[in-house]
């Protein structure tokens, strides 16, 4: 995430370290830029509320493609917004995303009971498997 959120992310990691069985880290990442310091590809990428600005779609998709490996699981959570250009931006994002990724919607009954809502969506995203020659 951005620099100004790193401290909050560190607090969140510290408060949840008893739930972590592997390793976790939070680092600054600007979409569209080089991701080589994040290699090898992570096992998981958590995304929340990232698809509301049309100008950020291409850099976000480039970063996802560059950052993920064949076994990376991307969990994407977003609130569906119905005003202005938001529906068109959301449609375009998923259309572009599906060129390189498989997208599975997590059913509402699998969401946390306390926080579930009809307008909150969670997607499980994986890179499409490429077939060799």
TrEMBL record:
UniProt entry tagged with the keyword S-adenosyl-L-methionine: yes
Gene3D superfamilies associated with the record: Vaccinia Virus protein VP39 (3.40.50.150)
GO cellular component: cytosol; protein-containing complex
GO biological process, one term: methylation
GO molecular function: methyltransferase activity
Pfam families for this protein: Methyltransf_16
Family matches, as InterPro entries: Methyltransf_16, SAM-dependent_MTases_sf
Keywords (A to Z) from UniProt: Methyltransferase, S-adenosyl-L-methionine, Transferase
Source organism, top-level taxon: Eukaryota
UniProt xrefs under PANTHER family: HEPATOCELLULAR CARCINOMA-ASSOCIATED ANTIGEN, PROTEIN N-LYSINE METHYLTRANSFERASE METTL21D
Name of the protein described by the UniProt record: Protein-lysine methyltransferase METTL21D
Organism: Acanthisitta chloris (rifleman)
């Amino acid at each position: 995430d951005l620099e100004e959120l790193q401290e909050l992310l560190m607090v969140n990691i510290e408060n949840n370290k008893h739930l972590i069985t592997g390793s976790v880290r939070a680092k600054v990442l600007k979409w569209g830029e080089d991701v080589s310091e994040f290699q090898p590809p992570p096992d998981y990428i958590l995304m929340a509320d990232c698809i509301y600005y049309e100008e950020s779609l291409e850099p976000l998709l480039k970063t996802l493609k560059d950052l993920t490996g064949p076994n990376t699981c991307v969990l994407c959570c977003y609130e569906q917004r119905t005003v202005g250009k938001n529906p068109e931006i959301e449609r375009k994002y998923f259309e572009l995303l599906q060129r390189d990724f498989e997208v599975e919607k997590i059913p509402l009954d699998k969401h946390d009971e306390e926080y579930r809502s009809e307008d909150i969506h969670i997607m499980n995203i994986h890179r499409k498997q490429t077939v060799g020659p």
